[in-house]
Amino acid sequence: MSLAGQTALVTGGNKGIGRAICFALAKEGANIVIAARNESESRETLDRLKGMGTKAFAVSVDVRSEDDVRRLISVIIDKCGGLDILVNNAGVAYKNRLEETTLEEYDEIMDTNLRGVFLCTKYAIPYIRRSKNGKIINISSVGGLHGIPDFSIYCGSKFAVNGITESIASELEGEIKVYSVCPGAVDTDMYRSFFKDKPPLEPEHIAQKVLELASPDSKVASGKIIEISAPPVPQL
């Protein structure tokens, strides 16, 4: 497997699952573009990527903003000449019963988790279409497959991401492969802010699956919704 010469955009790529994805793709030679709001966290991730010998840069972006996303894609094309892989990873959650959820919380969840996927995908498609290995990989959640108490709006946003994935996979059949990865409990800052237990998954488990899907050798059919609820069994 080699991603040498290919450019991958990872939203929310400066921490947690997104950062692990950046490192996994970089190890296979991909150029990495981090799109995130926290510039200091992006700089830390960039330093590690560049220490690996990776060509990488970060763009300060709010994926909820159409102007920001348009600028992001323009910068990528100007600097890299193209775009091969989009990983829609940026996401937020609030833990609340539905009746206690504020409209502001609802808007932040839906605008980040769903509008962000819509905008980044919409403006990336014309360029990914030109790639010989065009991939769009959406990071959803098991909450997009099964409702979770106290996370109704988050789950709603992730169910929608899975619906978009299946729809655009059909729209782009033969041009771009589209996937949705649905992690279970992953050891991230967001998970630890809600729960005290040690989850079974590490960000690297999700990154490995994304790497497999991003590979030019991947045989996974476009449109697949892939649940990861436990660490993979080591191959003997």
- Alpha-carbon distance between the termini? 20 Å
CATH homologous superfamily heading: NAD(P)-binding Rossmann-like Domain
- Work out the oligomeric state of the chains in this entry: single chain
Mean pLDDT: 96
Write down the CATH topology. Rossmann fold
Stretches with pLDDT under 50, minimum 5 residues: none
- Helix amount: 40-55%
The CATH class turns out to be Alpha Beta
The percentage of residues in β strands lies in 15-25%
The structural domain count equals 1
Q: What is the H/E order? A: EHEHEHEHEHEHHE
Q: If you had to describe this structure to a student in words, what would you say it looks like?
A:
By secondary structure, this protein is an alpha/beta fold. The protein contains 7 helices and 7 strands. It has a single domain (7-228), classed as Rossmann fold (3-Layer(aba) Sandwich). Helix 1 links the parallel strand 1 (7-11) and strand 2 (31-36). The chain starts with 6 loop residues before the first strand and ends in an 8-residue tail after the last strand. InterPro entries: KR_dom, NAD(P)-bd_dom_sf, Sc_DH/Rdtase_CS, SDR, SDR_fam.
List the keywords.
single chain, 236 residues, alpha/beta, Rossmann fold, seven-stranded parallel beta sheet, 7 strands, 15% strand, globular
Map the helices and strands:
Layout: E1 7-11, H1 16-27, E2 31-36, H2 39-51, E3 56-60, H3 66-80, E4 85-88, H4 103-128, E5 135-139, H5 152-171, E6 177-183, H6 189-194, H7 203-214, E7 225-228
Parallel strand pairs: 1-2, 1-4, 2-3, 4-5, 5-6, 6-7
